[in-house]
Design a protein that fits this description.
The protein is mainly alpha-helical and 103 residues long. It contains four helices and no strands. Helices cover 81% and strands 0% of the residues. Helix 3 runs antiparallel to helix 4.
């Protein structure tokens, strides 16, 4: 039996760690939103900032996420103008859409 290759483990560990950070930030956003009815900007910025790193490491098309994020941001701005969503909600949705992509 041959030992597992260290590079193979990193190919899984780095994207998995970034996905864990993504999920952790969403949990923090949910808890903060329930407690204070606000979503701090640093959460949306961190999600958007981690996405390009994840996309490069995981081999995901960055443009796919940018298209999804832009579409959600555009739709969210309309809902914000109608008073149906708050600004923090729109930013969080757009940052999350980056990770979801268009598929």
């Amino acid at each position: 039996m041959t030992p597992p290759c260290p590079a193979c483990d990193l190919e899984f560990a780095i994207p998995a760690t970034l996905i864990g950070a993504f999920l952790g930030l969403l949990v923090i956003a949910a808890i903060t939103d329930v407690r204070t009815m606000t979503i701090p900007n640093f959460i949306s910025l961190a999600l958007a900032g981690l996405y390009p790193v994840f996309a490069v490491v995981a081999g995901v098309d960055v443009l796919d996420g940018v298209i999804a994020g832009g579409a959600v941001l555009f739709a969210g701005l309309g809902l914000f103008a109608l008073g149906w969503l708050g600004g923090g909600d729109v930013k969080l949705l757009a940052a999350t859409a980056l990770w979801a992509g268009t598929d």
